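pipeline: protein-struct stage 2 | run 1193 | F-box domain-containing protein
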Amino acid sequence: MPPKPITMSNFKRAPQATPHHSSLLSTLKSTTMIESKPVLPAEIISRILDYLPIPDLLSFARTSKRMLEMVYEDSRWVQRLHAMGLWNEGEARKRFEEGMKRKREVMRKRHEEEAKRLGIGVQNGVGAQRKRRKDKGGARIAVPDREGPDARSRGAA
């Protein structure tokens, strides 16, 4: 039994009513695509994006999640702004640091609010969890912290 011929195409020609059609248009019309999803490599798409004007980039980003990620990649915009003479590395670094500082402050405030909500004390800027135990009825009660300021002064005496 001879081996099957290797084909590189996912196209299958539909049956033709008249076998005499030899024009390219009729051949294309009679061709159907079978289970294929064409995908360009990211490198090619990236090169194409480098040539698109900004309004077209924004439209292109709406076509799929993959394109959105590629269009909004930070390095693409840094390169574009640098080429336009609008990129200032010092200003960008300063704004990044300010943003990180704001983010840390928000996280610290959230942590404090969560600690208050859970009944965890905050001493000297460091969270200290209150010790709790259950009474005879099973209710939780707070136990005084023995390592507080009074305990330190007693230990020093």
